[in-house]
């Protein structure tokens, strides 16, 4: 019998994780983010006892999924061939149950559907929220299910995503169950893009483990249908093309990603670094600084005109920042200082939030400088920049961590940064309940898992492959020779 067989070998982890994903799905039918109105009778509230039982089942399943995922990563780090060769089949096993789940861990999908309906009904999605939809309008059931403070919030998303949401509503007639599954198809498409892009950047089984098998992605992109997955998939696809020398087409894809969510714009800076290093000299620097932004800007403007939704997305980029989230360090510090120093804490909080964003910009520019000097891989620089941007943003949700995690995974999953981001991912999945609420115990469990995980990572860095095991290093990337990173 192989030393890697048994419940904690690759096959055992695959089955345990699949059972966990199934438990999350089944628990979600009573404890998920269920709609207020649902004429099909599939996702109705079934009483407090069923809700508690479903939540416990979902938490148990999530824990099984996290444990199986972590063990699978250890096997990959040890170079176990069966683990490396089975990553895609494991992804299929873990994803399949979640495809059939109701909305989980967030009500954002109802906002997406309602915003698509608003476009079809002729409302300005950048001037008002889903509350403008009346009982007889398309998407009325979705609008009634939108989370409290988002009901009157204008859309912060670009026109490309609104066109996709509009298409889903048009095809499904705004019926909430078919529309949710329509949005899940988009989420699955995003997952495919991420897998292809990670592999295109030379990432092997370990990279896919951190990027695609990650429970944070499975529960928030597949089960929760957050459009961050589509932004990441398009952005990474653009980076792949840039690494291969096709930077113009790469910037087109990044421009489309920006029209999903704006943080994808950070990728333009690092594509510019690739262009500057390839061409060399002052001409290369000017070309790298200017042309990627011009190409992506033209795509953004063209997409906005074609979509017909207007340029209101420019002014709504900061609307989410007005909502306090406990994961935002700058918002928490700002609020605390404001309560201590002033009668009205908001001005102090606003200053601290702006200082946080300024610090993020400085870090991003420093990483871009290091990438231009050849001291860090530009792709890794992009990933770390997105991590810094999330950490210092005025609003932080658990799934925002995926912006940087998926990029770092592609080129440095088995580095110290990759191991720490894996710990962070495994902890953040507990912050949000299946119902989409953020209970106090979620933060407690997140803190405990984070502390134990970081302690473990400090004492047990990723092990070297064992003797006789297949190496798990990714295939060489297809970047030009002068873009290869040198050790920092």
Please state the structural category: mainly alpha
Instruction: List low-pLDDT spans.
Output: 464-488
Rounded to the nearest angstrom, the distance between the terminal CA atoms is: 43 Å
- The number of strands is 0
Q: Helical residue percent?
A: 55-70%
Order of helices and strands: HHHHHHHHHHHHHHHHHHHH
Notes on the structure:
The chain has about 500 residues and is mainly alpha-helical. It is built from 20 helices and no strands. α8 runs parallel beside α11 and α18 (about 400-410) runs antiparallel to α19. About 65% of the residues lie in helices and about 0% in strands. The chain is globular, with a radius of gyration of 22 Å.
Give a summary of the structure in a few sentences.
The chain is mostly helical and 488 residues long. The protein has 20 helices and no strands. Helix 1 packs parallel to helix 4, helix 7 crosses helix 8 and helix 8 runs parallel beside helix 18.
């Amino acid at each position: 019998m192989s030393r890697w067989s048994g419940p904690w070998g690759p096959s055992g982890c695959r089955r345990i994780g699949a059972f966990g994903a199934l438990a999350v799905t089944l628990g979600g039918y009573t404890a998920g983010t269920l709609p207020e109105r649902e004429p099909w009778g599939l996702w109705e509230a079934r009483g407090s006892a069923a809700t508690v039982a479903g939540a416990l089942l979902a938490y148990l399943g999530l824990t099984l999924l996290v444990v199986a995922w972590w063990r699978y990563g250890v096997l990959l780090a040890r170079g176990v061939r069966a683990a490396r060769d089975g990553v895609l089949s494991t992804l299929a096993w873990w994803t399949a149950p979640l495809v059939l789940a109701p909305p989980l861990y967030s009500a954002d999908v109802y906002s997406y559907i309602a915003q698509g309906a608003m476009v079809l009904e002729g409302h300005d999605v950048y001037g008002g929220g889903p509350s403008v939809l009346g009982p007889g309008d398309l998407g009325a059931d979705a609008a009634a299910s939108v989370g409290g403070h988002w009901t009157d919030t204008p859309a912060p998303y670009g026109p490309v995503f609104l066109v996709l949401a509009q298409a889903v509503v048009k095809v499904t007639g705004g019926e909430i169950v078919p529309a949710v599954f329509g949005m899940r198809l988009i989420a699955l498409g995003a997952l495919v893009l991420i897998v292809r892009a990670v592999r295109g950047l030379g990432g092997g089984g370990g990279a896919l483990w951190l990027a695609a098998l990650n429970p944070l992605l499975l529960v928030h992109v597949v089960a929760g249908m957050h459009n961050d997955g589509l932004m990441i998939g398009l952005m990474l696809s653009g980076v792949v093309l840039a690494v291969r020398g096709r930077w113009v087409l790469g910037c087109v894809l990044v421009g489309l990603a920006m029209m999903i969510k704006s943080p994808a714009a950070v990728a333009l800076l690092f594509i510019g670094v690739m262009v500057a290093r390839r061409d060399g000299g002052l001409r290369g620097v000017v070309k790298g600084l200017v042309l990627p932004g011009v190409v992506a800007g033209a795509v953004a403007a063209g997409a906005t005109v074609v979509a017909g939704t207007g340029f209101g997305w420019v002014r709504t980029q900061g609307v989410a920042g007005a909502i306090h989230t406990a994961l935002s360090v700058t918002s928490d510090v700002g609020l605390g200082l404001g309560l201590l120093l002033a009668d009205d804490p908001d001005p102090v909080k606003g200053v601290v939030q702006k200082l946080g964003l300024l610090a993020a910009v400085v870090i991003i520019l420093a990483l871009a400088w290091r990438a231009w000097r050849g001291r860090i891989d530009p792709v890794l620089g992009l990933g770390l920049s997105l991590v810094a941007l999330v950490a210092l943003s005025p609003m932080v949700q658990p799934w925002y961590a995926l912006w940087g995690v998926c990029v770092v995974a592609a080129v440095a999953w088995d580095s110290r940064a990759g191991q720490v981001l894996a710990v962070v991912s495994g902890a953040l999945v507990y912050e949000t309940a299946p119902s989409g609420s953020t209970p106090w115990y979620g933060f407690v469990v997140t803190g405990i898992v984070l502390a134990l995980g970081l302690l473990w990572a400090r004492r047990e860095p990723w092990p070297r492959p064992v003797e006789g095991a297949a190496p798990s290093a990714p295939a060489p990337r297809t970047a030009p020779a002068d873009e290869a990173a040198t050790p920092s």
